[in-house]
Design goal:
homodimer; 235 residues; alpha+beta; Jelly Rolls; Arc Repressor Mutant, subunit A; four-stranded antiparallel sheet; 11 strands; DNA-binding
Amino acid sequence: MELTSTELSCGSCALSRICLPANLSARETRILAGAVERGRELQSGARLIRAGARMDALYVVRSGSAKSCGVMNDGEEYVRAFNLPGEVAGLEGFADGHHTCDLVALEPLRYCRIPLGRLERLMETLPGLRREVLRLLGQSLEEAQRMRTEVSMVDARGRLASFLVDLSRRLERRNLPPTHFRLSMSRRDIARHLGLTLETVSRSLGAFRSAGWVEVRARYIKLLQPKALAALLAH
Amino acid sequence: MELTSTELSCGSCALSRICLPANLSARETRILAGAVERGRELQSGARLIRAGARMDALYVVRSGSAKSCGVMNDGEEYVRAFNLPGEVAGLEGFADGHHTCDLVALEPLRYCRIPLGRLERLMETLPGLRREVLRLLGQSLEEAQRMRTEVSMVDARGRLASFLVDLSRRLERRNLPPTHFRLSMSRRDIARHLGLTLETVSRSLGAFRSAGWVEVRARYIKLLQPKALAALLAH
DNA sequence: CGTAAATTTGAAGTAATTCAAAATGCGTGG
DNA sequence: CCACGCATTTTGAATTACTTCAAATTTACG
């Protein structure tokens, strides 16, 4: 039906400026849209991707949020990334065709799915898509490497500040309030992401609160002085 | 001259099983080789890539070794990776067309260079090359994410053990002695790579020596009990 | 409204850092 | 070849940021 197909098309999606089609021509976007499958709504805790599974598609968060996570051999969980709407997950599967971490919904989640076979065939003919996939991979790589040096060189407060400022920026890009938001992830998830314990995350947040930089009520965060947080990053 | 062109061709390069052509057909390798430029020998300390520079090519170490590094805003150096022969550097530039870290020779270094324009044109027609570049990016991403969780979850000795075991594996793949090698990087470089201080690296190596797991004489390392080191990783 | 989960707060312990000095290795020129 | 001097590495002692363990408090949800 006309309406449904309009809803499905990337061209009319609110995320198109952020998502994979961001830098594609209208024509390329239309063709890509033909390969995109829309997933049904998943509930919090649902697993979109499982570590070890064959990589059969790219997944894009459409609404809600997710974490890319796994467990170390000692059973400890780690969190590689949090995924907001428009962000592509599962790219690490390009390494050997298998995923190495789970993708877990943090709240009710809708997503799009681009089967790998169709993506590869489209990349053959669409140079823009080719460039975009490379850009996406490069961006994820850059981000992972930046996070790596951050975890090893910056102290707990610096890392938490960086996390909050980065999240704020990403929300802003999505036209969501950048200074007044709800964390969809637990303190434990944040800690596992930043290489800290949940107690240290809580204490650092407490320090920001005491300094008057943020307002914290459970998972609701208000950034009162984002610049003070950003200043922590400059060291 | 015939000889020179033979030397230049990827097909006859000793690294072809490890390098970019690893999974390419003979035909694709031949075509790719036509786009590869051979750099002159650089001396230790020379900078192949500069952070901030426009990404104009992919660089591959042909002999010697290099580090991918940069400086934090507080002036501290960090080391994202060490690059051995056959390893491609500068992939993070795909993010926005600019490099974000330097590539510095750790010893006399020879390299190959694949201009980006030619690479992109070749990817248009060579599906194998396309897949290989994606694989390479995926692998770098996976590696960066793995390192990130390692830095945040594993203690100093575990990280150093992981570094030595990984290096050993990479040397082995290159038909170099995996248990008896010379480190081309300083303790400081290793520390900056693992998110430690050089003193901690030295002390951890000392602990391995005391345990009879390694023999250390300056930069010469002999792995006496690689399995003991590998066991540290399993936690 | 009540119970389990999540978060905060507290106190003690520890691995790694920092600062400092000694020892070793390495290249250079006598 | 050996001696010199500088850079790297090792070793030592004190400090500290973060963790760990434990308990109180708040929040979420049936």
